[in-house]
Amino acid sequence: MQDPVLVVGLGGAGCRLALEAKEKLGCDCLLISNDARDLNHDVSKILINTTPILNPSTYLIRGVSFGAKESLESKIDKYSTIIIIANLAGKSGAALSPVVSHISKEMGKNVLSFGIMPFKFEKDKIFFSGVSLKRLKASSDCTVIIDNDALLDSNPDLTPDSCNLITNSALLQVISTLRDSSIPLQTNILSTSKDITDVETSLRDSIKMLYEDASPNGIKSALMYVVGGNKVPIGILNSMVNTISGIFGDDSTRVSLSVTGGDSSKVVLLTSIEGETRFDKYDPLGFIPKENVLDWEEPDASVKIDLELEQIE
């Protein structure tokens, strides 16, 4: 990361998380959404105006956002690092993340992105989230993927809202340490667990969540955050690091430890992935290299055009 830093929140969840990330990093914030209610805060903002459409599609929101390109460029021009937070399960996040990341990268900014993926029962959102994630990764120096569905698979007793709270907390935990730790410039998976007293059990649950998204053979590095680790014996921390190193089984896999204070205890794993993840299958055509796709440069969008045409019978 290089100062100055701008956190950009896209859509409802992205805007809420961006406001909290702004406080943790002590930086500026920009909110972008097609819903004015998401922008009801005293920070820099851009409204993607899709009126009079009451329920605009992802394609329409993206098409209208192209008209705000100059406004976006003027707001991010003075910053060196752009941190994008987007809920790819939402229309605004899926629509705007490829546009904002592409413009930021074109302007020569360092782009760090956080993408939150949908639950698998949200079948109507999976395709859009997969396509948006592919484009977001292409325009980012580093992408961190947060998969609520993997946490739900590992903990079927949780409600969707509980999953959101747990993964959002893990995301903010990683963001709060960005000035003190480094993240590899590639695709990263964020996995975590519920708040429990036994950190070793928490580590097991975090690894189980990770296995839902990627093969352990594709893991090249791991950063383990132990929340509340200042109360954990050194021997247990050492055992946890050795456990991770043994599970991944590759001598070249680097494992780092970050201990933070907290009232509750849990483990947050940030793992660098090479190769295929389950998100690559969200887009049925995702296996086609972008150099073989004719329309890769501009993401799919629909433009709102009011035409007064006489009806022909």
Fold blueprint:
Layout: E1 5-10, H1 11-25, E2 28-33, E3 44-47, H2 58-65, H3 69-76, E4 81-87, H4 91-106, E5 110-117, H5 123-138, E6 142-147, H6 148-154, H7 160-176, E7 187-191, H8 199-213, E8 219-227, H9 234-248, E9 254-260, E10 266-273
Parallel strand pairs: 1-2, 1-4, 2-3, 4-5, 5-6, 6-7, 8-9
Antiparallel strand pairs: 7-10, 8-10
Helix pairs in contact: 1-4, 1-7, 2-4, 4-5, 6-7, 6-8
Structure characterization notes:
- The protein has helices at residues 11-25, 58-65, 69-76, 91-106, 123-138, 148-154, 160-176, 199-213, 234-248; strands at 5-10, 28-33, 44-47, 81-87, 110-117, 142-147, 187-191, 219-227, 254-260, 266-273.
- It contains nine helices and ten strands.
- With 313 residues, the chain is of the alpha/beta class.
- The longest helix is centred in the middle third of the chain and has 17 residues, at 160-176.
- The chain has a domain at 1-140: Rossmann fold.
- It has a ten-stranded mixed β-sheet, with helices on both faces.
- The protein is 37% helix and 21% strand.
- α2 runs parallel beside α4 (91-106) and α6 packs across α8.
Quick tags:
37% helix; 313 residues; globular; ten-stranded mixed sheet; alpha/beta; single chain
